[in-house]
Design goal:
By secondary structure, the protein is of the alpha+beta class. It contains 8 helices and 6 strands. A hairpin with a 5-residue loop joins strand 3 and strand 4. Helix 3 runs antiparallel to helix 5. The longest helix is centred in the middle third of the chain and has 20 residues. InterPro entries: DnaJ_domain (IPR001623), DPH_MB_dom (IPR007872), DPH_MB_sf (IPR036671), J_dom_sf (IPR036869). This is DnaJ homolog subfamily C member 24-like.
Length: about 180
């Protein structure tokens, strides 16, 4: 994958490529292709004629958006990369937190090197040790705060891999005991 292709993909993270195609992330390549073909026919410049109206210009713009989305989502490698970047971007958003989960209440998976916790939907919350360490540091850098006792604990917002629930994963049960006192 070229550097310019990655830059374009990074620029499109904020614009949901699945929404551009009117599709869902769970759709198959065949379903995405079908949506792409429908939209490409609808907005293709040849179908709009040689008109220089604002309607034709917006149609061409929409066609270019649809085509760019298809180029990323039609290739399994670029789609996977986009999905990972999209998930990372989503995790950095301010979402409502369903609950707090303590690291000690999670299961450590040696093979994958991450903590996991079951969601009520049947999905899984998963987070690596590095993600737990970097989140407080990133937050301090964003807010320009000095390190405090509270700022040194581990913590990260983690989304379920199946549904839209988010949990805040934090420190250990020692912290939980201190909060209960």
């Amino acid at each position: 994958m070229s550097a310019s292709h990655l830059r374009r993909m990074n620029q499109t993270i904020e614009k949901d490529l699945y929404a551009v195609l009117g599709a869902n992330p769970s759709d198959s390549v065949q379903q995405l292709r079908h949506r792409y073909q429908q939209l490409a026919l609808q907005y293709h410049p040849d179908r709009l004629g040689g008109d220089c109206s604002s309607e034709a210009e917006s149609g061409v713009k929409k066609f270019l958006e649809v085509d760019a989305a298809w180029r990323v989502l039609s290739n399994q490698t670029t789609r996977t990369q986009y999905d990972l970047q999209r998930r990372a971007w989503t995790l950095k958003q301010d979402w409502p937190i369903d609950s707090t989960v303590y690291v000690d209440d999670m299961t450590w998976d040696d093979d994958q090197g991450l903590y996991t916790h079951s969601c009520r939907c049947g999905g899984v919350f998963s987070v690596t040790e590095e993600e737990l360490e970097e989140e407080p540091q990133r937050k301090q850098q964003d807010e320009g705060e000095k390190e405090t006792e509270e700022g040194r604990h581990k913590g990260a917002i983690v989304c379920c891999d199946t549904c839209s629930l988010s949990v805040y994963v934090t420190g250990s049960t020692d912290e939980k005991a201190q909060k209960c006192q």
